[in-house]
Amino acid sequence: MWLIGKNPYMPFRLETAWVWQFFFMHHPRYVHQALQAAGFGHIQKKGAGILDKLAGKLGKLGRAIPLGVGPAPLFGVLGLAPWIFIDANKTGDRQQVPDLPLEKLMQCISCGGHLNTDSTGFTCMECGRNFPLIGGVYYFDEVENR
């Protein structure tokens, strides 16, 4: 989709991309590295969103095409599918495994800038916008007064 100009996300960069208002895309290799850094092992990937879309456009002929269950592991390993699902197991001592850096997975919904986190929530390093943490939930909506 990127090659034909239908998606602004450049799929060859490891950085998290802010694509639509509340939608972030993560490169499969980045997710794999982050899972390993967080102590996950036995990582199995399955890709979806290729053959099911093709089968839907082929009408009656599309019913004869498998919806991707068989080739899903191949699409996941190759990182070619638009949706990649991961099954991984936590390994090692949980007390010694570092937390996944959430602020590195998120971007500001206003400007796409990098976020800094503290006990009150996220703050954008570029535009200064604050996204509060209230009752264990981060609020990224447009509501300013709570």
Structure report:
The protein is of the alpha+beta class. The chain has two domains: 78 residues, no CATH class; 46 residues. Helices cover 19% and strands 27% of the residues. It contains four helices and eight strands. The strands form three sheets. The protein has a four-stranded antiparallel sheet with strand order 5-6-7-8, with no helix packed on it. A two-stranded antiparallel sheet has the order 1-2. The mean pLDDT is 77.
Keywords:
27% strand; 146 residues; 19% helix; alpha+beta; two-stranded antiparallel sheet; four-stranded antiparallel beta sheet; globular; single chain; 2 domains
How would you concisely characterize the structure shown here?
With 146 residues, the chain is an alpha+beta fold.
Number of helices: 4
Strand content: 25-35%
Number of domains: 2
Tell me about the largest β-sheet: 4 strands, antiparallel
Helix and strand topology:
Elements (H helix, E strand, L loop, with lengths): L16 E4 L2 E3 L2 H10 L2 E9 L2 H7 L14 H7 L4 E8 L11 H4 L9 E4 L2 E4 L5 E5 L2 E2 L8
Antiparallel strand pairs: 1-2, 3-4, 5-6, 6-7, 7-8
